[in-house]
Amino acid sequence: SVSQIIRSGKFFTGSTVVSSSGHNYVRLWTDAQFKATFGRNYDGAKDYVGIMNGAGKDNGANPYCASHWYGDGVYAYFDRSFSGPIRLNYLVILAP
Fold first, then answer.
1. In this predicted structure, what is the pLDDT of residue 5?
2. pTM, 2 dp
3. For 56, left (φ over 0), alpha (ψ -120 to 50), or beta?
4. CB atoms < 10 A from the CB of 30, how many?
5. Whose CA, among 29, 33, 42, 82, lies 20 to 30 Å from 70?
6. Is residue 88 exposed (0-12), middle (13-18) or buried (19+ Cβ within 10 Å)?
7. How far is residue 18's CA from residue 87's CA, in Å, rounded to a whole number?
8. Rg of the Cα trace of the chain?
9. Exposed, middle or buried, 76 (CB in 10 Å: 0-12/13-18/19+)?
10. Cβ distance 18 to 88 under 8 Å?
11. Per-residue pLDDT tens for 43-53?
């Protein structure tokens, strides 16, 4: 059963190219960039950022989650460290 259904909110989809220099994470947006792009600050209690590899298997790294670090931005995390660029497709849901 569904405990809560959100009937309104904002949904954004897009694609971005980010680079890593030997880490298993990359920053997608600083807090300021997130607000400028999506119209408000990220709210960890109700917002969602989903990611997927938009580059196929170009570098072998597979994203598994996105997470917000307050004061620093939204990061994508991968199953392994890698170097170079990767295209990520994203879904951002801002709940009311």
1. 60
2. 0.85
3. left
4. 13
5. 82
6. buried
7. 6
8. 14
9. buried
10. yes
11. 989 999 999 98
